[in-house]
Amino acid sequence: MNDTATETVGLRIVADENIPALQSYFGDLGTLQRCPGRTLSREQLVEADILLVRSVTKVNQSLLQGTPVRFVGSCAIGTDHLDIPWLERNGIHWCAAPGCNANSVVEYVFCALAALEVDWRGRSFGIVGCGNVGGLLQKRLHALGASCAVYDPWLPDNPDSATLAQALGRDIVCLHAPLIKGGCFPSLHMIGSEQLAHIRDGAVLISAGRGAVVDNRALLQQLRRERRFSTVLDVWENEPEINTELLQRVDLATPHIAGYSDDGKLAGTRQIREGLSAVMDLALPAVAPEASGDTATIRIVPGSLMNSCEADPGTGQGGAIADLLLQMYDPRVDDRRLREAAFGTEPMAQVFDRLRREYPKRLEFCHYTGPAEALSEEELQQLAVLGLMCK
Q1: Alpha-carbon torsion, ordered 280, 285, 289, 290, to 10 deg
Q2: Mind listing the pLDDT tens digit for each residue in 87-114?
Q3: Fewer CB in 10 Å around end: N or C, the chain?
Q4: Contact 75, 269 (CB under 8 A)
Q5: pLDDT at residue 235, rounded to an integer
Q6: Is the pLDDT of residue 302 over 70?
Q7: What Å distances lie between residue 280 and 71, 92, 95, 269, CA to CA?
Q8: For position 345, what pLDDT does the model report?
């Protein structure tokens, strides 16, 4: 990448209005036009050189044909919303932001377990999809001494490699697979009625990858019959028009925000600017924002139902760790917002997008400090693995 100072180059940039720090990362390059990503149209791109999107915008021939767009940057870790073969056939450069919010999603998993009062200690994990998110989760779990079974046909040499049925048969099942609709290993509706039958009674299913990896109709039918396992859905089929009956029946529901930490959002913007700079031989901005410099102190709340450090595995996370996790991020708040708004007068699609657009600032664990004196050495080590430094 060329780091030579470059003045404004007169590029015309159209960007999803919800991408953070656009002016800081792209303002030096020319003009910026911000638009709602969900309704972005070809007419808005007739004079655009650069298109910057998130996962809500389908970038394909119908959107771009006949436009001067020569670079597409996506702040998402997945690429199923990009028609990559068409882009490449037409000489349009592209980049995504793989791994930008992986840490945020992993933190979401642990906070979701805390919210459900499920202790990870002594539990086995199944991971379906072991890319940036699943791989980071696997690494954290190894450091915590947890047993893992990983299903990812693209990574047959993974040391925890297992069949899909074996991964689904663990105590806590985490879905982080990308959405792939064809080829050797399609993931569309990879988890249907037959696969849901492999999930053991009392288990936890957490879906925080792509909504259509799970056949939502099959999941709803399962939950109508019986709730053998707890279900956490952050991603849904047909977003933003999600199934409100399924919303009512799952244990924890959030509007596709698992990766919405402040750190993850800024990392995504930074990565697509780096991609553009590499393609067009442009200098990076002289001064650009990094992750939030905010810090906060958390403490164990006296009298908390989660304040017993002697809770038995399997009876609820119970201890100080869960207490601290939920002070940093409590997904039950997002669950409550979604349920309350979904059953009001506002259309579901507007609710879903509004909650994402107006999502409050969320710091990752590394911005917090906790009370070392109240914790055991083992708990301090576990929190350090998760990113929280206690003192």
Answers
A1: 60
A2: 999 999 999 999 999 999 999 999 999 9
A3: C
A4: yes
A5: 98
A6: no
A7: 9, 12, 12, 17
A8: 92
- Amino acid at site 115: A
Strands (E), 96-179: 124-128, 147-151, 172-175
Interatomic CA distance for residues 60 and 56, integer angstroms: 13
Element (H, E) at 353: helix 348-357
pLDDT one-digit tens code per residue, 77-87: 889 999 999 99
Q: Residue ranges per domain, the chain?
A: 11-96+261-280, 102-259
Cis-peptide into 240, omega within 30 deg: yes
Q: What is the pLDDT of residue 288?
A: 60
CA 342 from chain centre, in angstroms, equals: 21
**pLDDT (mean) for 207-227:** 97
11-96+261-280, what's its fold?
Rossmann fold (3.40.50)
From 140, 256, 337, 367, the catalytic residue: 256
123, 140, 176, 239: the catalytic one is: 239
Position 52 scores a pLDDT of: 98
Placement of tokens 């002016």 in the chain: 23
* Token pair listed for 24: 């800081």
256 is catalytic: yes
Active-site choice (54, 210, 273, 362): 210
Is domain 102-259 classified as CATH 2.40.160.100? Answer: no
Q: Is 210 a catalytic residue?
A: yes
The secondary structure of 43-60 as a DSSP string is GGGTT-SEEEE-TTS-BS
Within 127-250, where are the H helices?
Answer: 132-143, 164-168, 193-196, 216-225, 244-249
